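Database export, one record per block. Field names are fixed; values are copied verbatim from the stored entry.
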Amino acid sequence: MHLVLKFIADRQAATAIEYGLIAAIIGLALILGLGAFSDSLAGVFETIRNAIVNA
């Protein structure tokens, strides 16, 4: 029982969980941003390809 109370009172574990959540949110934002950026970049290359082919 003493160990459980000590674990609940420990604030370092809460800090580690908060950092983990922040890292997960940043990772998700990077993945979503990269997905949107890659679609835009593919459109730019397609436009360039069409311009070269039709030239």
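Remark 1: The chain has two helices and no strands.
Remark 2: The CA atoms of residues 16 and 22 lie 10 Å apart.
End of record.
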